[in-house]
Amino acid sequence: MFACGASWYAVPADASSEVVTFPELTRVPGAPAHVLGVFAHRGEVIPVIDLSILTGGAAEDSRRAVLLRVEKGAFALTASRVAGVSTVSGGTEPLESVGVKLHLRGPAQAASQDVAVVEPIGLFDFLSQGG
Amino acid sequence: MAVDAVSGLLLCRAGPHRLAFLAGQVASVGGEGAAGFAPARLAYGLPQAPGKVLHGQDAAAVGVDSLEVNQEQWPLLPTPALISRHAGGSLVGFVATGDGLWPVLRLHEFWAFLEGARAHA
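YS: structure for the whole thing
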């Protein structure tokens, strides 16, 4: 689980491969603000996404990110704090029926925090369609 | 992971941002006296500034702040699927130089994207 902006998020352990510190990013022309840019990681180009901007908050000021890998590719979510691996309990329904929060589930709790559980494949598809 | 190689690039700047084009897709480079070019700065939400215009084989014309011709051969890193639709689908891939990553763009598709963005601005 990790914090981004004012919120805590959890990602399934089987989709989160590592926590990375990324270098200066290269902006992608025409990309929305929540796509902060890309960096090269072990010969692969990784897009960095700011969940705080994506959910309507302020930009995250962090050079750390949680790297997620799904079948279609990899992406990284910025993180101001990383709290390791925890058991998540609580709701598993989408937080909203449309938009990015369709791919965030809860309300859930982990390590005494309210967390939203990221659904990696759905979020990837949402982002790749320009969301 | 299969990686193609690319050589003959125009390494360009739009404000502080890097972007590259395949030299084979650029027929000529001129000043901004030419009409009908689309500024690359538009893709970054930046105001227009003086620079050069890359002209394609057809009507495509993209304005950039500055450019340099690079003849080195670079591995072309694939475009991540998550961003392949950005910039009108014009991303060919990325090259990694000492300055960082450069997005390599198809000139005609990028110009068409900029024209569309300008129409909606």
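YS: worth flagging: Chain B touches chain A at residues 1, 3, 14, 17-19, 40, 43-44, 77-88, 91, 93-94, 96, 100-103, 105, 110, 113, 117 (CB under 8 Å).
IM: good catch. Also The first strand of chain B starts at residue 4 and ends at 14.
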